[in-house]
Amino acid sequence: MKPKILVSRKISDGAEEILKQEFDVTLNLNDKPYPYEELIKLVNNYDGLISTSFDKLDKNFFESLTGRLKVIGHVGVGYDNINTQSAKEKNIKVSNTPNVLNDAVAEITILLILASSRRIGEAYNLVKTNTWKDHRPDITKLMVGNEITGKTLGIIGMGRIGQIVADRARAFNMKIIYFNRNKLSKDLEKDAAYYSDLKSMLPNCDYVSLHTPATPETKNIINPETLKLFPKHSVFINTSRGSTVDDDALIEALKNKKIYGAGLDVFNNEPNLDKRYLELDNCFVLPHVGSATHETRLAMSMLAVNNLKCFFSNKPLLSEVV
Length: 322
Ligand code: DGY
Description:
- The chain has twelve helices and twelve strands.
- By secondary structure, it is α/β, with parallel strands linked by helices.
- The strands form two sheets. The protein has a seven-stranded parallel sheet with strand order 8-7-6-9-10-11-12. A five-stranded parallel sheet has the order 2-1-3-4-5.
- The site of (2R)-2,3-dihydroxypropanoic acid has 7 residues, from loops.
């Protein structure tokens, strides 16, 4: 008998086709999220689950399992929605989808750097709302922003995505500095300067881009104390997780022009982000689309499926979390 697999949301067509061939699969074709309690009840009839970041797989979820579920192939590199300790205690393997989304997230990071420096949100709205009327604008003011060429980009978390962001930024002649738990080897670091202390790096940044996972250590790493160290002209970019930011502090800094701007793809409590962000001209916001390209979403879906294939053929997982 083929293993039974539940897929909690719609994933890429190509990956769903493979699942149909290899497993006894229940797809979520209309992409309607399963309510928490319903998912718990349902998943007890399955050997494997393909999850996404919309699923809350917390301690209670794992404690409610009756023993059939053996593996979770999570579609996402971040797995802060999964209590991996509880999974381990229940002897349930969990995989994620690292690496395949690095380029897509780096692209969105560069987009946010450019958009928030060149006031693209404001400029776009001016045309889109048909309020671009002045033929003789003050050329020193109307939609005049900051150039990124030659500026310093401070990267918090110089992992795989941080390193690719650094490479893309080098194409704009940006100078790279970084804060990381460990100093990278020379070949990975290239010309970037290492700071072992975040607070020493921040005053030297024109741009600060965050690329850390959501962990207890990174929760509210952007807070009143760290924001005080950002230069007044600096821009903050976040494509990692909203939990890294103290919203009150960032909104206060943006509102009172203590920093120049922010470009945010991720938020606390998505999709119900703090609505005060929407009132700020100097904050460019996106709905968590860092990995949203056809190529990357297919690669993420395929990696989750291939992890399940490995598990059920007794091979090591390709990207095991626990
Ligand atoms: C990830 O994979 O963690 C991205 O943020 C998409 O959810």
